[in-house]
Design brief:
By secondary structure, this protein is mainly beta. The protein has a domain of 52 residues. The protein is 13% helix and 34% strand. The chain contains one helix and four strands. The chain has a four-stranded mixed sheet. 5% of the residues are buried.
């Protein structure tokens, strides 16, 4: 899990808890250099999620709009697709 800069946790509908890893898109991607969010795993309880993270030696924050980086659309043209 070294390719991720940090981790976030989310509670999804249906009482599932998900772990996400955050990294950077590689140079060959159209989103090169921007933040990437990768789904890693889901758990039935927050305790299972915390135990997994502890076992792997990783820490993370509960995700919200203030934690997640905003995706830039600067790579797109201002011209319309006609």
């Amino acid at each position: 899990m070294k390719k991720y800069k940090y981790f976030t946790k989310e509670q999804k509908s249906g009482d599932r808890f998900c772990l996400y890893g955050w990294g950077t898109y590689p140079s060959y991607s159209v989103l090169a250099g921007q933040s990437s969010k990768s789904y890693l795993r889901s758990f039935d309880t927050s305790k299972e999620l915390e135990a997994f993270m502890s076992e792997k030696g990783i820490s993370g924050e509960w995700s919200n709009q203030w934690v997640e980086p905003q995706i830039s659309l600067n790579h797109l043209s201002d011209e319309g697709d006609y």
